[in-house]
Sequence to fold (262 residues):
Amino acid sequence: MNLTLAIPLLAGLAAWIVTNLLADTLPFTPAKAPHCGNAACRAPLPWQDYLLLRRCPKCGQPRRARTWVLLALLLAASFYIWLSPPRDIGYAGGLVVFVYLTSVAVIDLEHRLILQPLSIAGLFIGAGTGFLMVEDWWNVPLGAVAGFAILGIFYLFGKLFVRLNARRLGTNAGGEEALGRGDITLAIILGLMLGWPLIWFGILLGVLLAGAVSLVIILWLVITRRYKEQAFGIFIPLGPGFILAAMVILYFPLYLAVIVPR
Ligand SMILES: [Zn+2]
Fold:
């Protein structure tokens, strides 16, 4: 085998272990070693079995599909980034950012949470990426402010909508929020990463991508005649939409240049 291809292969495997491990341990407090995904079992998985993708030794439950999806995704991403690394941050930086964004997206999809340790790490990773990639350093903090402001306005409108909707239905608007505070944090992180003015395009693209995914889910519910019972419980994956948009901007800039010339 070509020796230089061993680097993206091994780094891709390492990236997969890190991403999968973060998604399996971080959302649980106190953070504990990986355990079986079967809700009735929850037995801790020995590290050897965990890393070798073996079934749960206690109940025989196979590993969750996400583990395999991430393996394919991170290997593919590692080779892709190796062949066309993002400008200024190179292969290593590109892979670190990809692992970070993927971990946040997976945890958001599975738990609808953007966790504090990942938020704090994101401020550093975002600022580091921004100062290396964004032209003119002041566009980095400006991007964060813009991300905060745009999502803040969305957040207030969402709150207003939930309140009006609750009044119309005569129920109490308790807890239910159209947009989480975590999404605002994510917009700040991506604002640092992409800088001004790319952040507004990232948010717009993210909303469109999240909307497209929701539309598919709604169509599926309508076709399977389950729309009514689910009508107010549809989850719009805004966070993962923003992350997907940021990935398109960071890793496929050539395709993007066709739409928005820089
Ligand atoms: Zn088990």
User: Anything to note?
Assistant: The mean pLDDT is 86. The pocket of zinc ion is lined by residues 36, 38, 41, 43, 56, 58-59, 61 (CB under 6 Å). Residues 68 and 177 are 32 Å apart (CA to CA). The radius of gyration is 20 Å.
